Amino acid sequence: MVDFMLYMGLSILETSAMFYLTFKIFKIDIYMIEILFAGIILAFISYVLRYDYGIAHVDILTQYILAFCFIWLLFRTHIFYAAILNGLSYLCYTLIQSTYLLILNLTGLFHLQFPSVAGGTYLLQVLSAVTTIIIGSYIGKKRKGFDFVPDKPYGKVTLNKRDIILFAVSVPSILLVLLMIYLAEHYSQFFFLIPLGYGIILYAYLSISSKKDRGDYEFNR
């Protein structure tokens, strides 16, 4: 029971942190009740898939799809941009978590082995979630972020080249999560490539978003 409560609580914290950071980056209103609701659903399904059925890898893909559906249908974001937001959410969070994972592994507090449940795992989840929330709060306080995501879920969206590139860049996020697990299981000496790869993709993602945001602003002035 204690393990179940810990798993649920930390999973909800992580999911909420991911949504919070993503919405702050794109200046989307924060609805905490809806975020917590999504976090509870995702955490419960994750627990069942991992501990009742033992299919952790399927859980990862399921979480990604469900998070996309929540951004699209629960938070009322246009389906195309929901895919982009979901990709960014996983890019940001997994970059933070993989960096902490690498540091904890080097210090001996955590071992690169999947699946793993121990004190190091809980520490990793808390550090990642808290860091994500702090970054999101900083972005919100400094009024940083992008404005190009439309607030109408079913409005007509005219896609340009940058939109398509953003969508393409968001696709590798879930693939890199699976690659991270594979490297942790079989080639831990190359694990440093994961945060490096995430950092490169995230930089490209934010650079394209910044150019698109400026371009849309200049076009609408």
Give an account of the 3D structure.
- This protein has 221 residues and is mostly helical.
- It is built from 8 helices and no strands.
- The protein has helices at residues 2-25, 32-52, 56-74, 79-107, 119-141, 161-170, 172-186, 193-220.
- Helix 1 (2-25) crosses helix 2, helix 1 packs across helix 4 (79-107) and helix 4 packs parallel to helix 7 (172-186).
- The longest helix has 29 residues, at 79-107.
Helices and strands in order:
Blueprint: H1 2-25, H2 32-52, H3 56-74, H4 79-107, H5 119-141, H6 161-170, H7 172-186, H8 193-220
What share of residues are in beta strands? under 5%
Q: Give the helix tally.
A: 8
Query: How confident is the prediction overall: mean pLDDT?
Result: 82
Q: Given the C-alpha coordinates, what overall shape results?
A: globular
Class inferred from helices and paired strands: mainly alpha
Radius of gyration: 17 Å
Q: Main β-sheet: number of strands, strand sense, barrel status?
A: none
Helix content: over 70%
Number of strands: 0
Distance between the termini: 57 Å
Low-pLDDT stretches = 217-221
Topology pattern, helix = H, strand = E: HHHHHHHH
